[in-house]
Design goal:
Protein name: DNA-binding protein
Order of helices and strands: HEHHEEH
Number of domains: 1
GO molecular function, one term: DNA binding
Organism: Calidifontibacillus erzurumensis
Distance between the termini: 49 Å
Radius of gyration: 20 Å
CATH architecture: Orthogonal Bundle
Largest sheet: 3 strands, antiparallel
CATH class: Mainly Alpha
Keywords: DNA-binding
């Protein structure tokens, strides 16, 4: 199947794909570099709902709270999940 695209459309498509790729790479780099996450980000990182993530806290997941701001360390999440793995 061959598609015939105008030069202008092809350039727009190429630019769109390039930008989407750059945005995805940037997001991956930010996620890798960031060690302390908000509770919402922590839930996403762990692959669970926010409410389930709050239950993890009751089960021993360490949460840092300073002046009402709560953060969780990626390493703590990984260790917690490993502890409860079977």
């Amino acid at each position: 199947m061959n598609l015939i695209l105008s030069v202008d459309f092809e350039k727009q498509l190429r630019d769109l794909i390039y930008k989407a790729t750059q945005d995805a790479i940037k997001q991956l780099k930010n996620n890798e570099e960031k060690q302390w996450l908000s509770l919402k980000e922590g839930a996403q990182y762990a692959g669970v709902s926010y409410n389930t993530f709050l239950k993890f806290r009751d089960l021993g997941l360490k949460i840092c709270e300073i002046d009402g701001v709560k953060r969780v360390n990626k390493k703590s999440i990984d260790e917690f999940l490993e502890k409860f793995s079977y």
